[in-house]
Amino acid sequence: MIQVAVDAMGGDFGPYPIIEGTLLALREYRGFKALLVGKKDRIESQIPRGFFDRVEIIEADDVIAMDEPATEALKRKESSIYKAVELVRQKQADGVVSAGHSGATMSLATLRMGRLKNVSRPAIATLMPTYKGKKTLVLDVGANVDCKPEHLFEFGVMGEAYARAILHISQPKVGLLSNGEEDTKGNELTKHSFALLKKLPTFIGNVEGNNIFDGSVDVVVCDGFTGNILLKTSEGVADAISKLMKKNIKKSPLSMAGALMMKKVFRALKKEIDYSEYGGAPLIGVKGCAIVSHGKSTPKAIKNAINQAIHYIESDINAFIEQRLEEVK
Questions:
Q1: What is the mean pLDDT of residues 43-53?
Q2: pLDDT tens-digit profile of 277-317?
Q3: Is the peptide bond before 61 cis (omega within 30 degrees of 0)?
């Protein structure tokens, strides 16, 4: 049975949404056991008796706060995220899910769980919506602020592997994010990365920001600095559009009537851009599985993060990444 370690104390709203999301996942997916890591007295009272056979509580007295430096993570061996990651390192769990300090989660997963063979930098990947109904995988979106061309090449290989194993795209189109589609466009990093990525038969060349949302590419590669700005900007635009629509709809009875008629459309749009639908972002390139969730995760988001972890573990994507890097390096 798959075992998923869940940092029960991580997140902005305490253990309740984490535990509730875990219970939702246990109800929906029968083939896994949850290892809830945190303060036992705060967790145990929230677990219904009928779940005791599929839930194990791992005591952890310490919690790394969001405003603390990630460098503290390695010293805080009694923290919930440290102990959750250690369960994966010691093969007592197959994956870890945390909505806590993202920097601490990434640092511990990389340093304690270790990197896959031929992976020099693990990357955070996220799925972006397109108007064609498919998703675009973007990596890195924050794990590595400063990158070298070889890192972006590895991101391309790992993204290609994820698209095949998880998204079930047999021949994913891999693009390099740049300021123009022409081969000569870009800065020194992207120009040198372009030359390396040409080794991949699935590489289609440079792509621009708008291509992420038009469905023309399956995997978009960039450094973590650019990717994080892209992610936060996209979230901000989606939120601003939603608020502008609500503001303008309220201005007239006619607009409100039209909005009621378009209710299903608005609901579908909200679902497309709602982070809770994805649950979290996988840290690709580490041994095992690590899913980094939003600090404001709802129970639904945690449920979907656990679901994502289960699919990641079942796919055997890590073996595929190692094999693919061996072939193309």
A1: 89
A2: 557 899 999 999 999 998 888 999 999 999 999 999 999 89
A3: no
Question: Tokens in use for 277?
Answer: 């639908």
Quote the distance between the C-alpha of residue 5 and its chain's center.
Answer: 16
Task: Please identify which residue in the block is written with the tokens 């952890």.
Answer: 60
Listed as own residue / partner, the contacts of 324-327 with beta carbons closer than 8 Å and 24 or more positions apart are: 324/157, 324/160, 324/161, 325/116, 325/117, 325/118, 325/119, 325/154, 325/157, 326/117, 326/118
Hey, what's the torsion of the CAs at 84, 89, 90, 92, to 10 degrees?
50
CB-based contact 99:18 (threshold 8 Å): yes
The tokens describing 17, both together, are: 């949404």
Enumerate domains of the chain plus CATH numbers: 1-119+285-315 (3.40.718.10), 122-277 (3.40.718.10)
Radius of gyration of the chain (CA): 20
pTM for the whole structure: 0.88
